[in-house]
Amino acid sequence: PFFMGKAMTAVTVERVDAFVERLLSCGISKSMILDIVRVLSIACNDAVRRDLICKNPCDCARLPLIKKKSTRPAITPEEVVALYKAAEGHRHQISIPLLFETGMRKGELLALQWDDLYQNDAEQWFLHINKEVSSSKVNIIEYHTKTENSCRDVAISDSLADLLLKYKASIKGTVPTFIISQKRADKWVSATNFQKEFSRWRKSAGIRKNVTIHSFRHLFATMAVKANLPVEGVTKQAGWASGRM
């Protein structure tokens, strides 16, 4: 409607700028505006090829700036093994195989309780995920997940379940509520403190690239796809909203 009744020659740079301003005032997201202008630009390029206009007005238009997302380097299975060895003897070493096999988010891992580990009637082991530790400076448990799909039951292997049970049996005194628990209190570990622990393990493992805890999630998806596992199952296991992610 903004260009209704306008000839192609009337679509100037100033007119495209005004169009962008109109879209911004309507509350349309910056990324969507870029897509819209991209479509307009395709039409203008075609008009240039047909000698209807001299140049594409979209080329010099003032478009909204979008902060580029920083890319996270991938983590390899070999680096996972190195991290596990670097964390040897630490009470949170169990977090490495948990992240590797499930691809769960950091907050979901830290909110896991021993009561969330269970077997179904077919003796298949699962972890029930329905909460997360906040990643904000406020160290709290949020009794919801990132999305509706994130609330799920994650199937785990017998070997991981055995590892968890052996770890539980090795705990001296009263078993804490949380799997990744504080040393002196029956409480979850904050996301900030766990990140510091992970950084120390990474340094000790000799991993120089800035891999993060979230890198396990990417590795989980990559290995699952390479193994030709059904996209629907991988999506459900990791708690993504769709297979597109």
Description:
This protein has 245 residues and is mostly helical. The protein has helices at residues 13-25, 30-49, 77-86, 95-102, 106-110, 158-170, 191-204, 215-226, 231-238, and strands at residues 117-119, 125-129, 132-133, 141-142, 152-156. α4 (95-102) packs across α8 (215-226). The chain starts with 12 loop residues before the first helix and ends in a 7-residue tail after the last helix. The model has no long low-confidence stretch (mean pLDDT 91).
Name the descriptors.
two-stranded antiparallel ribbon, about 240 residues, mainly alpha, 5 strands
The N- to C-terminal Cα distance equals 33 Å
Helix content: 40-55%
Strand/helix succession:
HHHHHEEEEEHHHH
Structural class: mainly alpha
Low-confidence blocks of residues: none
Strand content: 5-15%
Q: Identify the strand order in the major beta sheet.
A: 1-2-5
Overall geometry = elongated
Mean pLDDT: 91
In short:
By secondary structure, this protein is mainly alpha-helical. 42% of the residues lie in helices and 7% in strands.
Topology, please?
Elements: H1 13-25, H2 30-49, H3 77-86, H4 95-102, H5 106-110, E1 117-119, E2 125-129, E3 132-133, E4 141-142, E5 152-156, H6 158-170, H7 191-204, H8 215-226, H9 231-238
Antiparallel strand pairs: 1-2, 2-5, 3-4
Helix pairs in contact: 4-8
